[in-house]
Design goal:
211 residues, mainly alpha, two-stranded antiparallel sheet, 65% helix, disordered N terminus
Length: 211
């Protein structure tokens, strides 16, 4: 049950689920397409980029919410960018320390999390107007939604393009990989398929509710 003041809303299930489903950043809002199409050649890459983005998103939204009454309106965007860049730098070093192979696979897209419109948009539209816990839950839902989107694309592309999932062979040596799936066009094909599926599902719900 929501409180009447939307700018200072209570903690609800919708606060969390908004980004996971109804406003999924990949399949509904179609945001963050640069990493979505570029790094999702495998499920591991998609999951790793999603988790890294989610960490930056939750951490930055928490800090933005905590200092929302202290930052002058004139410098709020610059302040948000500095906060986001700080957490991105931390993630960059952590991934580099954990796995050089993964760091090289994700490449410059780790640093480009700074300009991901999902993070800055959540900071400006939600975290700057709500208390820390609702801001964190909303950011967590959006981060999980983004991770699900990247994992969905990476999983399909890895299965069709390499015959495996998370490095585990699924079809044996006789499988003929669809090479296009691990190339840039493959990202557009798979994304288009998922968007078509979500559009069909939304249309189906509208027809069902209108009946």
């Amino acid at each position: 049950m929501s409180l009447p003041n939307q700018a200072d809303q209570g903690i609800t299930f919708d606060t969390f689920m908004e980004g996971v489903w109804r406003q999924n950043p990949v399949f509904v809002m179609v945001l963050g397409m640069c990493p979505t199409l570029a790094v999702t050649v495998s499920a591991v890459n998609g999951l790793s980029m999603g988790v890294a983005t989610m960490f930056v998103l939750v951490s930055s939204c928490l800090l933005v919410s905590l200092i929302r009454h202290l930052v002058p309106k004139e410098v709020r965007i610059a302040t948000y960018i500095v906060i986001i860049a700080t957490f991105v730098t931390l993630v960059d070093y952590l991934i580099q320390a954990a796995s050089l192979a993964l760091y090289e696979a994700l490449g410059a897209f780790i640093q480009l999390i700074v300009v991901n419109c999902i993070i800055l948009g959540r900071a400006e539209a939600h975290a700057a107007k709500n208390p820390p816990l609702p801001a964190m839950l909303n950011a967590l839902g959006m981060g999980i939604g983004f991770t699900i989107g990247l994992l969905a694309l990476g999983g399909v592309r890895e299965i069709l393009g390499a015959g495996q999932l998370f490095g585990v062979s699924l079809f044996g040596a006789s499988f003929q990989p669809w090479v296009v799936m691990v190339l840039p066009p493959g990202g557009f094909f798979v994304l288009g398929g998922w968007l078509l599926l979500f559009a069909w599902w939304a249309r189906r719900k509208e027809v069902r509710h209108g009946a």
